[in-house]
Structure formats: C-alpha cells, structure tokens
Amino acid sequence: MEKLIITAAICGAEVTKEQNPAVPYTVDEIVREAKSAYDAGAAIVHLHVREDDGTPTQRRERFRVCMDAIRQAIPDVILIPSTGGAVGMSAEERLQPTELMPEMATLDCGTCNFGDEIFDNTMPTMRAFGKRMLENHIKPEYECFEMGHLDTILTMARKGEVPGHPMQFNFVLGVPGCTPATVGNLEWLVSHIPAGSTWTATGIGRNAFTLGAAAIVMGGNVRVGFEDNLYLSRGVLAKSNGELVAKVVRLANELGREIASPAEARRILSLAK
Fold it and tell me: What is the pTM of this model?
C-alpha cells in the first residue's frame, strides 16, 4: 500500500470567522494555516482565496500573491488551486487560477445541489475547463460530489475532452443534497475508477474523520480542513488546520499507514518529472 497523501483544504469559499475565528482571510493568515497543515503532515494544500474582508474571490492576482507567499514559506508543498470558486461565479472567473500554470487544479464533475443552492457545472463548462487544463498541462483533481459525476468525467476522458490516465479523483461526500458520506458509497466509487488511478476521500462535517479512516484502510488518500469541517471533535472547534491534519496522522499511525512527503506525493500522483 502506498503512503498516505493528506490534503488540507484550508479555507474554502463559504466558512467564516463567525463560525471559527481561525478561518483565514488575509494572505498572512492563509500562509499561517497552510504552514500549520504542512508541519502536521499535509503534502497538499487545496487553495481557495479570500479578500481581506473574507469575500471569496477567484482573482488571478490574489491567487498569485497567496501562492507565492505559501511557496516562500513551504517551497515543496503541492498547491491545488480551486476552479470551483464560490456558487454563482462565472466560468471565466473560476478559471483565472489556471492562468498561473499550477501543476494541479480542481475540476468539478457536474452540477449538483449544494445545500440550498445549485453548484452549476454544465457540460460546456466542463469541456472549457478540460480544454484549459489540456492546453496548460495542468493535472486535474476530479471532484465528484455525486455518483453520476464519475461516469460523466470518465466519458469525457475517453473522448479526450479532459486529461486522462493517470487520473486523480476526490470523492466529496456528505454535502447536503449530494451523495451521502457512507463507506458503501465510497467503495462503489473507488471500484469504478480506471486501473492506475489515485483517489482521495473528503467527508463533509461530522463525516470528516469516519470517511477518512475508511479511506486510510482502503488504500486511498484523505482531505481535511476548514473548508470541509471546522471541528476537531463533537462541539470542539479546531484551532488550526494543523490540528485537523494531526488527527488524520494519528489515525493513520494506528491503522498502519505511513504519511507521504510532498516528493513522495508527486511520485504517487505522477507529477514528478
């Protein structure tokens, strides 16, 4: 079994300081949280960015400043900027981070309910995102919120509309209105990915660590962070993203999985040159 790759989704686009004061908005806060996660064992930082007042943004310049600052603090970390942005943003807005030529970026695999809102990812939108990543030689992390999303993106890969083998999937389970975060659902998704693919499990809210433990045992990888869950345990707010990552490390140690460094993660994800 390969070593465990831990991803930290450090701020997302929706959570606020009112919910947890440690949620980062400013560049310095984003660097602080990225470093806390890295120091605890994360090889990857999944990055949304905010304006200083907390407003979510996909501005290329804001991403550039944040990514440069993170790389200065932790040069070897893998950065996966989001092209999901926030609900309601246009495709053009969401694509701006891909102009910075990151080694990876997310690609959302279909429209879905997202709580009380609709996360809009039409086929033309996904084709445009796939075309950009093909042109810019960016490896997508395919984010599947629904079981049908997997078939959609595999069909697109067969047609050459998005980058293909080897593929990296992130199964985001437990979003209200989307596929529930059960081990059975995760097992079904993993059983239908192409041979040689890699995958990560993201459990939303109270599902963060139960789904993470299943992924550890199943040989997958784990994402945690303030974007997905603000609590270290029931009723106990996490003081940093590093605390959430450290809990995954403890679970992995108990279950016999070693933690991948960024260099090891690049090899596992076929990023290493």
Answer: 0.97
